[in-house]
Amino acid sequence: MSLTLQLRPEVQEQVVAEAAVHGLSVEDYVACLIEGRPVWRQPLTTLADPDQFEAELRQFEADMDSLSEGSELLPAWHEVATSREAIYADHD
Questions:
Q1: How far is Cα 43 from Cα 49, in angstroms, rounded to an integer?
Q2: Cα-to-chain-centroid distance, residue 79
Q3: Angle formed by the axes of helices 26-35 and 9-21, to 10°?
Q4: From CA 4, how far away is CA 68, in angstroms rounded?
Q5: Engineering a disulfide at 24: which of 11, 28, 33, 89 sits with its beta carbon 3.0 to 4.6 angstroms away?
């Protein structure tokens, strides 16, 4: 089946950008959305740019480092606090 859509320019730009993010053609991306298939599970139709991948990986690692900053100051959980008995202490 063939289908023609009339989209507002800003919506068209967003669809094109989202398809590119997922490495899919616009047609494949829209088909995934209409068919209810998860877009993130689709195989990439093109190889990712290695430089972009490296940049995104560095950003991800920096974000994780930032997120964990100061976590070494948090108290450690004692194993008794996370035991089944402790969790269900108020149940019979």
A1: 15
A2: 32
A3: 90
A4: 48
A5: 28
Per-residue pLDDT tens for 5-55? Answer: 899 999 999 999 988 888 888 998 998 889 888 776 545 444 567 777 788
Helices first, then strands: H and E counts in the chain: 4, 0
Write the burial class of residue 44 (CB in 10 Å: 0-12 exposed, 13-18 middle, 19+ buried): exposed
Task: Look up residue 27 and give its amino acid.
Answer: E
pLDDT in tens, 53-73: 788 889 999 999 999 998 888
Distance CA 59, CA 40 (A): 20
Write down the pTM of the prediction.
0.43
CB 48 within 8 A of CB 23: yes
Rg (CA), the chain: 23
Which of the 8 DSSP states describes residue 88? T
Kindly state the tokens that stand for 62: 């920096």
